[in-house]
Amino acid sequence: MAAVTRLSTRASFVSSIANRYLSSDLTSHAPLRLVPTRGEDQKNTHVRWVFLGCPGVGKGTYASRLSNLLGVPHIATGDLVREELASSGPLSSQLSEIVNKGQLVSDEIIINLLSKRLLAGEAKGALGFILDGFPRTIKQAEILEGVTDIDLVINLRLQEDVLLEKCIGRRICNQCGGNFNVASIDIKAENGSPGIVMAPLLPPVNCMSKLITRSDDTELVVKERLRIYNELSRPVEEFYRNRGKLLEFNLPGGIPESWPKLLHALNLDDYEDKHSAAA
Ligand SMILES: [Zn+2]
After folding, report:
1. Which of 59, 65, 117, 171 is catalytic?
2. Which of 55, 135, 156, 278 would be a feasible disulfide site paired with 225, CB 3.0-4.6 Å?
3. Which reaction is catalysed here (predicted)?
């Protein structure tokens, strides 16, 4: 594998151009805070977070909202892959075959795309990131440890039948690129487990006739993705649990129910109040 550049963990987020295999030095790093302090200049925020969770659980949605709230880039490896696919670059035909079968893209490809993106963000002065869709395997988690330090890993959880229904309900507008979901989930509480209500996320009227389903959102492909997730990615939860970095979050429903509870779990409810008041 190509040498991977390790990104600095210091407040300035300056690159230290060191090979990852040389990175186990004794350099002392400033202690990292999980959450920026109220009233603090965003330039001093340290957010290096990872979102874990089954495909379709909503990692992208929550990662994107948090990145807007905290002012750090949301880096989705799925988007990195799709950008590469659309670029008709040297990797695109190889990638399209892998993606259409619902298989995982190789570590080498993902790490190359991700390192490129982290360095580009750093060059533009980004002061942290929220990763979504990476790491997916223990091996990737180990490689990521050599590339940068992660402060917190948020594991989003939702029962599998709901996940499946949500994935099959995904739609994209082929004109504006908007993401929508036609699944309407209403599971009654039983045997002590709480019910789950998730309203569909319907498009505006002018997008309605332009909705398409991505070729990898069929039931077969989604089930295959879940099987692969359980086999390869479940152990990643344990990896971060052992390092004391895993925050488990059971989604109580759709975004209106889940978002405030997630902010509370992250100790950010004041943060949002402050920002909405300032807006
Ligand atoms: Zn549209």
Report:
1. 59
2. 55
3. AMP + ATP = 2 ADP
